[in-house]
Amino acid sequence: MNKTDKPKQIKLEAKPRTIFGKANKSHRKEGFLPGNIYGKDFESASISVSMNDFTITFKQAGETSVVYIQLDGKEIPTLISDIDYHPVTETILHVGFRKVNLKQKIEAQVPFSFIGESEAVEKKHGVLLTQAEHVTVNALPANIPSEIEIDLSKLTEIGDSIRVSDLPTSDSYQILDDPEKTIVSITEHKEEEIEPETTSVEPEITGEALKAEGSASDAANAERSDQGEKTASNPSTSSGQASTNREEKK
Questions:
Q1: Where are the domains of the chain?
Q2: 155 phi and psi, to 5 degrees?
Q3: pLDDT value at position 24?
Q4: Among the CATH numbers 3.30.450.20, 3.40.50.2300, 3.40.630.30, 2.170.120.20, which is that of 102-192?
């Protein structure tokens, strides 16, 4: 189902803006939002709008409904197209309005709205993968749908998917995306296998082992010491042996 029913003309009052750069910071604190209007065959205009008014307007129009900017006594048909957010606070810093010709078709991105529940997910433990969140259409500005609904209840089995070619067609707009492009699909849930850690364990040396090792070392040192003492205390033995050897040689 495509939501093409839109509210009556959405209007937003704006004033010419002469503040630029860092000066916009104080301008925002006063409750105003800097922006600009741009478009084909249109001289870009720097404007300022009420932050509160823009918040209400954006909730109504999104990026697919025509917003008539009231500036210097004129009404300029636009689409909200470029919004800059603060990277930390996510507050709106700047907004761009794309001027459109109501009699000429344009390209626009239409968001999907996912409804219903998939039986494959609820009862068969499948995993829902969302692979696209919008589709590009070509239409007159007034005929751009605000959203296109995707019914997830049609996904009943593992492996089911919804492609662009499954979307309903309309006489008021043309879908430009590849018909084979997947929007959502169901895959099998797989448990992640965790391999046990294998680490080499160094043998633990207890106090008893250290004591035994020390005793063996002390005994060896004592034995070497005793042998040295015996050699030193019996020098005649070595001298007599040497004399005997000389006699034998004679």
A1: 1-100, 102-192
A2: -90, 100
A3: 87
A4: 2.170.120.20
Specify the amino acid at residue 81: S
- Residue 106 corresponds to which amino acid? I
Structure confidence by residue, pLDDT tens digits, 72-91: 999 999 999 999 999 999 99
Q: Which residue has the tokens 């707009």?
A: 173
CATH no. for 1-100: 2.40.240.10
Distance CA 38, CA 56 (A): 22
Tokens of 89: 């606070």
For 93-125, write each residue's pLDDT tens digit: 999 999 999 999 999 999 999 999 999 999 998
- Global pTM exceeds 0.70: no
Q: How far, CA to CA in Å, does 234 sit from each of 96, 230, 238?
A: 110, 6, 7
10-residue mean pLDDT series, the chain (250 residues): 65 93 88 95 94 96 95 95 93 96 95 95 93 97 95 95 95 96 93 63 56 56 54 48 44
Which residue carries 């006489």 as its tokens?
Answer: 171
